[in-house]
């Protein structure tokens, strides 16, 4: 499971969504992509306004897709939101 | 959906799991609790080593459970991990 925690500067919500949508449009076409959901905090004061949770068929499929995205982005990622994507597995329930 | 992002100091993984388990044991008994899963980053260098994702019947049920947990904790929460719990809803897929 890919969990991507976004730290968004004040006033940067719309830009963060646009950045996320641009990345989603590209990543969703990559082999091994299963699903993705962008979650927004219900409280405006939450430290992390957005958390994206995506499912991939394998860590390798995700790594390859990220490699392609970085190579494909003609323009550098916007300065606004800070992204912290990482692969996770369930360790306790 | 409750997403709780944990920032864990170096060497603090075991303590973070113990803290999480203590809170889970109490919260899981509260009315309205549905499920909870603790996710650990597969890469040791990930900024956020743990992300907990829990389902509650309503935001109110979660808020009441948190109120009880804070009142019930005889000892202050350990200094180790920093917890950033917040309620989220899906805004894009």
UniProtKB/TrEMBL annotation, chains A, B:
Taxonomy, superkingdom: Bacteria
**Listed GO MF terms:** monooxygenase activity
- Tell me if Ligase is a UniProt keyword of this record: no
Pfam families registered for this protein in UniProt: ABM
Annotated keywords: Monooxygenase, Oxidoreductase
Q: Does the keyword Oxidoreductase apply?
A: yes
Family matches, as InterPro entries: ABM_dom (IPR007138), Dimeric_a/b-barrel (IPR011008)
Ranges where the ABM domain occurs: 2-65
Q: What is the name attached to this protein's record?
A: Antibiotic biosynthesis monooxygenase
């Amino acid at each position: 499971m890919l969990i991507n925690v976004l730290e968004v500067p004040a006033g940067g919500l719309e830009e963060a969504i646009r950045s996320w949508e641009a990345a989603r449009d590209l990543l969703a076409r990559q082999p091994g992509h299963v699903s993705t959901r962008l979650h927004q905090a219900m409280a405006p004061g939450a430290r992390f306004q957005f958390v994206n949770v995506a499912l991939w068929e394998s860590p390798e499929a995700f790594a390859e897709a990220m490699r392609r995205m970085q190579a494909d982005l003609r323009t550098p990622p916007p300065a606004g939101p800070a992204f912290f994507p990482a692969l996770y597995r369930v360790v306790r329930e």
